[in-house]
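Dear colleague,

Following up on Tuesday's group meeting, I ran the structure prediction for the two-component complex that the binding team flagged. I've pasted the input sequences exactly as they went in, so you can double-check that nothing got truncated or mislabelled along the way. The structure tokens for the whole assembly follow below. Feel free to forward this to whoever is handling the docking comparison.

Inputs:
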Amino acid sequence: MIAGTAVPFKKTFAAVSDEELNYKIPAYLKNGDSIGITSPAGFITYEEIQPATQLLQSWGYKTHAGDTIGKRNFTFGGTDEERLNDLQKMLDDPKIKAIMCARGGYGSIRIIDRLNWTKFKLNPKWIIGFSDITVLHNHIHNNFQIASIHSKMTNSFPDDWNLAEPIQIETIISIRDALSGKRMKYPVVAHPSNKQGVAEGVLVGGNLKTIETLTGSSSDIKTGGKILFVEDTGEYLYSIDRMFWNLKRTGKLTNLKGLIVGGFKVKPDDLGEEFGKTVEDIVLEKVKDFKFPVCFGFPVGHQKNNFALKCGIKHRLSVTEKEVILTEII
Amino acid sequence: MRITIPPYLQKGDTIGLVAPAGFMPIEKIQTCIETLDAWGFNVQMGTTTHSSSQNYFSGTDEERLADLQNMLDDRKIKAALCVRGGYGVSRIIDRINFKKFIKHPKWVIGFSDITVLHSHIFSRYKIASLHAPMAAAFNDGEFNNPYILSLKDALEGKPAHYECKPHPFNKTGETKGQVVGGNLSLLAHLIGTDSDIKTRNKILFLEDVGEYLYNVDRLLIQLKRSGKLNKLAGLVIGGFTDNKDTERPFGKSVYDIIYEQLGGFKFPICFDFPVSHAKENFALKIGVKYKLSVTDNASVLQEI
């Protein structure tokens, strides 16, 4: 009875939504904490994750390679059962404080509805990855409001840290910053097509194609009041256009606070099938009726300049003539 | 749910040709025109069928929208045949005015990208439309094949009766329901939009072309996860042609993938039904009630 009467009270006086009240941030990592590495999608060899494990260890973390590392079932890092069990174990093991997905590819969607989130909800931990891992980020965000880290995975760590390019080093360091609880702040050079403005909201997003294929499911993100970032690779321009129509037609742009367009590696048009519009044209056409700020060329995507972003955490996006700044605000 | 069936065509009726999506060179429409003419129909060419467009589309959004709008509004035109799919209907669908079309329904014909029109018309206005071969299918001497002729029969109002061979993945059974469906990628793309179809108690048919195997898997999972298969009456799997695979092979055939994702349901399933981007593409009236009967000997899809 008391709880029943308390609900409308909270609703009346709270300036934020119920969803926002429930946002949870997993514990940031401390020296000696363990990071689990698993393949919920594509396969990877044990050798391929060595640069990542060595670097994570040099940062003072322990690493735990899951059973799926080195496993292969065609394109997958093991059968559905093997990938499910490995990820499940990592979600449930209280000693593991963060789970880094070894790589993307395809496969998370095949196991998402069979994962048991009971222990994870009680003891949230960081889930790290991008591309196909967008499934995990969006599922967790929509169902549990638990923050997660959209970033490079083990297959993007440089083989030799001493020979790595500065951008590789900076992006990998951004994962450490995110995991250790540093407040994220990314200044980016302004793009001529940007739409100026300032927005505050919880950051959500990921791979655009993956976001589209989650529409209508329990993993579909709500974007009202939030800042959305999208990126994609290997898609034709017509397909990118169709996906932005999907965002618009499913209402994902309607109450959006801000839009961050990351890298779009475009598949060249077939001869005689020239689409005749750029990615910027495609996006600006869909957002022309909206006032929220939009920035292009943000360093997130299937590219070297892919910085760690904390999904499910409030950020400020400031798009001015001179620059774009994305800042975490708590 | 009640459905409005547009009037069937009489000899001398006019069929409008329109290209609401990709560009189609006029010479590739010629056999289609001649065939419709030979069937006793008048043909009216839309402006998009002789477009001067130099890019992917058969004209700007405004040009394609205006042409399609005219086809829908002009009462002399009894059917609008889309000459080609490709991509482009999603760009104009929300700007089409269906007011006159609702008052005076007519057959909208096509497949592939035209799935957007079919789904939109069915879910919003409960008007039947025709998933059928388009202009290119008439070429290369194919204007007289059973699939092209099924379009003629459909336009003339002859009830369809299609039979196909059994397939080892079939799930036998008999069911009745309105037929809905089309191109899998587009049906998935429409989920959550105004054009999304409800599939409860319906017979759903699916086909696709040129998709990566992993993506077919993902799209089917999306259908499942969005509840599209929960109360389905029956499922018709057409052709999934020219599939692509990733460098690291997916390891399953496209029908293996479909069977794995969809075989667990109770409703009857017919594989390898002749609806596809290949020659085998029977005309199906979306929104019209059919009986699907899947037995060990044959599958029959029959209009009732």
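Confidence is low (pLDDT under 50) at residues 1-14 of chain A.

Cheers,
M.
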